C-alpha cells in the first residue's frame, strides 16, 4: 500500500479520537477500573422543577434519556476502540493490512474509514464500519 497513507490518515484518526473522547465525556464517565470503558451518566435532573404532578413523567423522561445515552455511549465507545486500534496499527507498522487475510485494504476504503481493519468482504458481522 501507499507508504504515505498511514502518515496522512494518522492525524484524522487522532482528531476523531479526540472528538469521540469529548463526546463521551459529555454523556459518560471513564471507568477507572477498565481502560477504554465508559459508563453513561444519569441525566441531570437538578435544574428541572419537580412538583408532584410532573414527577412521574419526569422520571420516565429521565429513564428514556438515560437509555438513549447508554446506546450512544456504547456506539461511541466501540468506534473509539476501532480508532484506537487503528492508531496502534500505525505505530506498529501493520496499518492497512486486513486483520482476516493480511492483504492490504484498498486505499479508497481506508480514506472513507481510516479505522477500517478488514476488507469489506472480511468485515465481521458484529462490527459496523
Ligand atoms: Zn481481507
Report on the architecture of this protein.
- The structure is a single chain.
- The chain has 129 residues and is mainly alpha-helical.
- The protein has one domain.
- The chain has 3 helices and 2 strands.
- Strand 1 (28-30) and strand 2 (38-40) form a beta hairpin.
- Helix 1 packs antiparallel against helix 2 (52-92).
- It is elongated, with a radius of gyration of 19 Å.
- The mean pLDDT is 89.
- Residues 98, 100-101, 103, 118-119, 122 line the site of zinc ion.
DSSP summary, beta strand count: 2
Order of helices and strands: HEEHH
Mean pLDDT metric: 89
Helix content: 55-70%
What oligomerization state is this entry in? Answer: single chain
N-to-C terminal Cα separation, in Å?
20 Å
Short description:
The chain is mainly alpha-helical and 129 residues long.
Keywords:
129 residues, mainly alpha, two-stranded antiparallel sheet, 3 helices, elongated, binds zinc ion
Task: Compile the SSE list and pairings.
Blueprint: H1 3-27, E1 28-30, E2 38-40, H2 52-92, H3 107-112
Antiparallel strand pairs: 1-2
Helix pairs in contact: 1-2
The chain binds zinc ion.
Amino acid at each position: 500500500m501507499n507508504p504515505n497513507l498511514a502518515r496522512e490518515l494518522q492525524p484524522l484518526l487522532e482528531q476523531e479520537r479526540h472528538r469521540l473522547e469529548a463526546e463521551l465525556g459529555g454523556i459518560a464517565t471513564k471507568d477507572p477500573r477498565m481502560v477504554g470503558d465508559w459508563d453513561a451518566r444519569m441525566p441531570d435532573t437538578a435544574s428541572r422543577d419537580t412538583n408532584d404532578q410532573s414527577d412521574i413523567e419526569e422520571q420516565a423522561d429521565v429513564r428514556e434519556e438515560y437509555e438513549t445515552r447508554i446506546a450512544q455511549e456504547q456506539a461511541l465507545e466501540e468506534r473509539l476502540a476501532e480508532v484506537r486500534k487503528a492508531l496502534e496499527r500505525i505505530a506498529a507498522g501493520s496499518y492497512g493490512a486486513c486483520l482476516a487475510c493480511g492483504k492490504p485494504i484498498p486505499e479508497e476504503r481506508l480514506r472513507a474509514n481510516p479505522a477500517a481493519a478488514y476488507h469489506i468482504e472480511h468485515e465481521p458481522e458484529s462490527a459496523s464500519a
